[in-house]
Amino acid sequence: MTELRFISANGLRFGYFEEGRGPLILLVHGFPDTAHSWAETRSALAYAGFRVVTPFTRGYLPTEIPADGRYDAVTLGADLLALIDAFGESSAIVVGHDWGTVAAFTAAQLDPAKVRFLAAVALPHPASIRPLPRISWGLRHFVRFKFFGGVPWITANEGANIDMLVKRWSPAWTFGPDQTAHVKEAFRQPGCAHAALGYYRAMSPLLSEVEKRKVAVPTLAFCGDTDSVMNRSDFDHARKYHAAAYDIVSMPGGHFMHREDPALFTSSLLAALGNADLLPKREAPPVA
Q1: 92-97 and 51-55 strand pairing
Q2: What's the pTM value of the predicted model, to 2 decimals?
Q3: pLDDT for res 205
Q4: Residue 281 burial by Cβ neighbours in a 10 Å radius (0-12, 13-18, 19+)
Q5: Pick the CATH number of 5-275 from 3.40.630.30, 3.40.50.1820, 3.40.50.620, 3.40.50.1240
Q6: Per-residue pLDDT tens for 41-52?
Q7: What order of strands is seen across the sheet that includes strand 24-28?
Q8: In this structure, what are the phi and psi dihedrals at residue 147, rounded to the nearest 5 degrees?
């Protein structure tokens, strides 16, 4: 079991797991999820020669719940930039899923020099998302979480609605109780579920000027073939919001494709990093 560690960044104490040595990769979880969800990918990337850090994002215990209640997208991006600094690095590869993708995008928009490469899992550039009936229906949980205080709903019946949401968004995934146990345990802790829904309360249909910016770093977007919310056309539509290289990988699976097939996800990510000349350089064996 990888040891839980702590570090201070952007005024908060973050819990995180770390494996490997080499160029820094941040793997940033979304909702309803925790840093535990990256375990297999973290180990595989560490084996490939990277220093891989998986933080619990703000408000997700054991990371501190912010006293000021700030969960807006720009703050989430600033967290990642501050973590890069705190880990003693000048830049990092950033991989985000769901709200972690929002954080990854805004980190790249705030300071593209610090994000060497961005991988966006299950969510295209936020400014590209259209109010289509299909998408609006798929995102209907936003209304509950933003306006109707969804904490009792998300914690009811030992977190049964968490399983329902995961199944709704990844309908072809047959998952066991271990796949959602960590987030259910986190949401049982005082204040954690309220903090996690703070991301939705902070969301505005009017994006900030930062969020509207084109992304100026190489980006790989992962699209799930059976995602019930976003499909390939949404990722194609987002291309005009990227000012650097932008590639799309369609994968079997839904919103949680990186967990449904972590081996395929990791191999696809490593292939893209290789194409971008971002794989760690291996020392040649000594000549006999």
Answers
A1: unpaired
A2: 0.95
A3: 84
A4: exposed
A5: 3.40.50.1820
A6: 999 999 999 999
A7: 5-9, 12-19, 51-55, 24-28, 92-97, 115-121, 219-224, 246-251
A8: -110, -20
